[in-house]
Amino acid sequence: MLGLSVPAVDALLENLRRSLALRILAIPPLPSNSEASTKLAVLFSGGLDCTLLARIAHNLLPLDQEVDLLNVAFENPRVLKAAGNTSDPAVTGFSQCPDRITGLKSHAEMQRVCPGRQWRFVAIDVTYAEFMSHRPQIVSLIYPHQTEMDLSIACALYFAARGSGFVRSGCSPDLVPYTTSARVLISGLGADELFAGYTRHATAFARQGYEGLADELELDYQRLGNRNLGRDDRVISDWAREVRYPYLDEDFLRWVLSLPIWEKCGFGQPEIATGFLNHDENPLLEPSKKLLRLLLWKLGMKFAAAEKKRAIQFGARSAKMEVGKTKGTQIIS
What we know:
It is built from 13 helices and seven strands. The strands form two sheets. A five-stranded parallel β-sheet has the order 3-2-1-6-7, with helices on both faces. It has a two-stranded antiparallel sheet with strand order 4-5. The longest helix has 24 residues, at about 200-220. The protein has helices at about 5-25, 50-60, 75-85, 100-115, 130-140, 150-160, 190-195, 200-220, 225-235, 250-260, 290-300, 300-305, 310-315; strands at about 40-45, 65-75, 120-125, 165-170, 175-180, 185, 240-245.
């Protein structure tokens, strides 16, 4: 059974640490006349993939190096309409977005497990009017991709990469405007495709076992470049920032692809009967991306290790911004 004691957990740490070090330890210093000091930011939903990268980065970077955690949330008219009339003002705000809730919880856990560093949580709130004003630019940037799903994913990355939001100033509860000075952004792209993080991977295993899952993972891996990388790079670099992908490092990929599938995920493996909070040797975790979950658990981030997978467009609520029936495969009008 895949548990904390399997050698693959420690091997994952070493290989991912090496990949991440190449991408964050040689970032050029900011201009000498700049008052800003942050060189690195993480595209941060608070989920498993990005939180693991931030956690390992803590072991690599000097403590005095600040890290910005960019967390985006959208004002979605469709969601607000579905909520109906309510006396709770928070329902109409950004605080109810799933990624905002998860992001704040993971940020708090990061501060507790990795003290001594300034982890700056940047709350990036995008109103519907602002989304519409930037929509033509985003549609232009993602071309030749042209589906509603492409747009919903890209707009989340676009506004996250802009890096303009609000942060807490010191111990005060008040939020102040802030724009990150980081030119290098870290992304968790690739983790789902390599470690079986999507619902369709569970479906493939249920239907055809490991053979079907292997075929599905191979398909996802082969189309990553065509489906994701060009589109995402264009919307992020539009803000003169560079995104780096530790999970897609060639040496890291070579190692992951050499692993048997049952060492990457927990599908088909017996579950422990006890609750995960009370069982440290073999914690009860989601089978998807279980190897990543085990490593993050071992590094002390137990909340984030147990967090369920949620696509960026649903976590940030950038999907289906228009009221009415829209499918992700529909061509942008």
